[in-house]
Amino acid sequence: MRRSGRSKFYIWLLLPAFFFYTVFWMLPAVVAFLSSFTQWNGVSLASIRWVGLANYAELFNDRWFWNALRNNLVFVAVVVSSIVILGMTYALILNSKPRGHSVFSTIFFIPIVLSSVVIGLLFTQMLSPTVGLVGPALSAIGMPEAANHQWLGSRDTALPMIMVVYIWRELGFAILLLIAGLQTIPKDYLEAARIDGATPWDITRYVTLPLMRPILTVVIVLATTNAFLLFDLVIVMTNGGPFHASEVLSVFMYSEAFLKGNPGYGTAIAMLLFVIILCVSGLQLALSGRGQKAN
């Protein structure tokens, strides 16, 4: 009897969270999924027309969708690998507590607390060929052709520049997680490896990295998910240009749904993006779990 009363009490505690989860997540998700099978002007409900899989069929024949997907995949591959490699390298260095490590930790952490819009505007000004600092700085070190280069106005450099800014913004969070993971490794394991004559590289490869696999998985999944959802930096810095060179799926979705007035088509893009993120994250978690079992 007492257990039954306690169960009812727990249910009442969970009801508010379940209500908000249903109203603000489940219902919008269901509505978005259903609207991906419709075509309407986004204003009048009377204009809604059921078109079935027409939006998805059109999507796979849309050259700009494939362009955005390619940009997104390149962005994710470069950004995630850079964040993991640089994050692990800096985490190992800072975890050894060299002189000034607290200052460098603060420097890496600063971008986390800054608004993405502020960061985008800041680097847009810095990369400007007229008032920016990047061109004159490169010219001063022997690269005069870079002084007037359109870093965000060139098809060859627009997306790479966004990658650099994004890595700078996200690297601090990855370092923070990785340092926390490094501090959980028992020091006895490291001391035993040193006594056995292992070099620092051997310790990192055979002791540290295997024990860091769970936190590395978290960092990789978070970095991948956030990279696929990239939106604000692109909108502020290039708006997807020049000529779709830096357009990613979220920007393409926004353009179709809100700028071109086709919410059904835009929602279909969102659904496909959701499936891609779900599959990639699931694959990463599956490979990580298989690696842990093998060890």
TrEMBL record:
It is a multi-pass membrane protein. One of its GO terms (biological process) is transmembrane transport. Keywords: Cell membrane, Membrane, Transmembrane, Transmembrane helix, Transport. One of its GO terms (cellular component) is plasma membrane. Signal peptide: none annotated. InterPro entries: ABC_transporter_permease (IPR051393), MetI-like (IPR000515), MetI-like_sf (IPR035906). The chain crosses the membrane at residues 12-34, 73-94, 106-127, 158-180, 215-237, 265-287. Its main location: membrane. It is found in: Cell membrane. Residues 69-284 form the ABC transmembrane type-1 domain. Belongs to the binding-protein-dependent transport system permease family. PANTHER family: ABC TRANSPORTER PERMEASE PROTEIN, INNER MEMBRANE ABC TRANSPORTER PERMEASE PROTEIN YCJO. This is ABC transmembrane type-1 domain-containing protein.
